[in-house]
Amino acid sequence: MASSLSGLYSAFKLQNPTPNKSPLARVDSASFPARSKLLDRFSVQSVAKEIPANLSKPKNETLKEEIRKGLEKDPRELWRRYVDWLYQHRELGLYLDVSRVGFTDEFVAEMEPRFQAAFRAMEKLEKGAIANPDEGRMVGHYWLRNSGLAPSKYLRSQIEATFDAVCSFAADVVCGKIKPPSSPEGRFTHILSVGIGGSALGPQFVAEALAPDNPPLKIRFIDNTDPAGIDHQIAQLGPELASTLVIVISKSGGTPETRNGLLEVQKAFREAGLDFAKQVLISGSCFCFCFVFLALQSSEYKSQGVAITQENSLLDNTARIEGWLARFPMFDWVGGRTSELSSVGLLPAALQGIDIKEMIAGASLMDEANRTTVVRNNPAALLALCWYWASDGVGSKDMVVLPYKDSLLLFSRYLQQLVMESIGKEFDLDGNRVNQGLTVYGNKGSTDQHAYIQQLRDGVHNFFVTFIEVLRDRPPGHDWELEPGVTCGDYLFGMLQGTRSALYSNDRESITVTVQEVTPRSVGAMIALYERAVGIYASLVNINAYHQPGVEAGKKAAGEVLALQKRVLQVLNEASCKDPVEPLTLDEVAERCHAPEDIEMIYKIIAHMAANDRALIAEGSCGSPRSIKVFLGECNLDEMYV
Ligand SMILES: O=P(O)(O)OC[C@H]1O[C@](O)(CO)[C@@H](O)[C@@H]1O
């Protein structure tokens, strides 16, 4: 079945020799309103100065309805549109169907100058331009899969040395040459990956998508500062903590959640009588180029920790001083959310027995395809075109990602960061307030059919869908018919096709990405496809896709809360050391902290500490904050809280 379908796909492409024959091109452009209200609202003039902003998107719902009905009345027209626009990457076995997004040929033509500007920007970026102007950084994740593109010999050698070091370290761990310190006879059986955001989501997605049923090392993640979540992961490891390789991933090396995860894990090691790191200088270690550092030669491995971080970060220095097993670099020019194909994603993948060379090969082939400047032949550009059309270039509709394959469950979560952290920006590159964004959510089909597809079909029309279709249901030789002529996978296929049709018949647009199988190659290609689509889309809407200033605000505020908590504790300590003890009202605490404006936060701090057995006694009712009087159970004369 799969092979005949793939043959059919090839046939489609062969039947498509003439570009620009979309049935929608027949719609009279004079009937389009000059410019959408949404575009007006967000001052898109600034987006690309040389390009006119009066795009001809038919905002007129009646007109859109007419187009749809026209296509419905004549399914052959829809079929022609499907064939005309179908993108195929033969070598990757990847297809992109954009026929159920209603852009017109006129719209495509009007977008053309913007696309050419985006392609030029992408070319400059690949040549090493400072593509992240706010942070003065190059953006080089494309070099990771084609080191020849890197703008200097030094960068090339760093990329290649790191890749080789990842491969040989993983091979040595998997074959048992590198052993856990407390069981020199044994092998590492588990990975505990500590990291958050871009330092977790890629590895999580890839583990779920590609790890074999019995991987050489099984992986677990700590990706939060939730103590109960951390306890759960450690409890699940149980005695196998002794044979667990702890990989701490943080580009900055100073992310609090990750630091906390590490401290919690180190405590668990101590409590289990294990040495996380023996704090020795490892002799016979070697430097490969400037940074990739492995305790290669020692027959007695002293640590179970591996750090992936920027050189000289706090984490790097800790790992170096404590003599961790290995340190791998995260480069300044690779952003967290585009780091899956750096050591961040490759090391955990290789340790799970996933073919990382194939992942890189898939990404590299996809990058190549995305370098063409012909929009209809460029899959990333086609995605960006659809996103722009569907969301008016201002994020007016959400992107629902629905892979019909359990192993791709985490793709939407991975894309959520890639797209939303990149596109969700307050200002454009010219400093205009634009509040850009593109919301991404989704889990998997057909499961979601029994959850929220009802609303997608019939309810508020604020989204477009991306279906991810995988042609191969099961490995060869394992399928069977659960009723005559029908397999379990046929049902999944039917659900996808049925949902796509049902949504379209109610004017809900969708894109379909099809791959033959979920393999390291196709996963690498999908990662590269979306990384590039995000880059192109960001150019279309004139924003910096590579910084995340908004996240800093939350981090700063969290730091301020913890600083306030220390002041509260100091004030309470002083009052509790008096004789007699002086219980304080919240107003008094706030006053003595010189933070009367923070009284609500002080109430929350006290309520949180009281709920966690923190030697703090709060009298009164939490429900009526004014009644509360608070003091510490004991006076700590030596305690310094600030
Ligand atoms: O790898 P780091 O520096 O720990 O950062 C983790 C994540 O935090 C962010 O900086 C902000 O959430 C992400 O961009 C990044 O992936």
UniProtKB/TrEMBL annotation:
Keywords for the protein's UniProt record, in alphabetical order: Gluconeogenesis, Glycolysis, Isomerase
Presence of keyword Isomerase: yes
EC numbers on record: 5.3.1.9
Source superkingdom: Eukaryota
PROSITE patterns per UniProt: P_GLUCOSE_ISOMERASE_2, P_GLUCOSE_ISOMERASE_3
One GO MF term: monosaccharide binding
Catalyzed chemical reaction(s): alpha-D-glucose 6-phosphate = beta-D-fructose 6-phosphate
A GO CC term attached to the entry: cytosol
Pathway: Carbohydrate degradation; glycolysis; D-glyceraldehyde 3-phosphate and glycerone phosphate from D-glucose: step 2/4
Leader sequence residues: none
GO biological process: gluconeogenesis; glucose 6-phosphate metabolic process; glycolytic process
InterPro entries the record matches: G6P_Isomerase (IPR001672), Phosphoglucose_isomerase_CS (IPR018189), SIS_dom_sf (IPR046348), SIS_PGI_1 (IPR035476), SIS_PGI_2 (IPR035482)
HAMAP family cross-referenced by the UniProt entry: G6P_isomerase
Similarity remark: Belongs to the GPI family.
Name under which the protein is recorded: Glucose-6-phosphate isomerase
Organism of this sequence: Rhododendron griersonianum
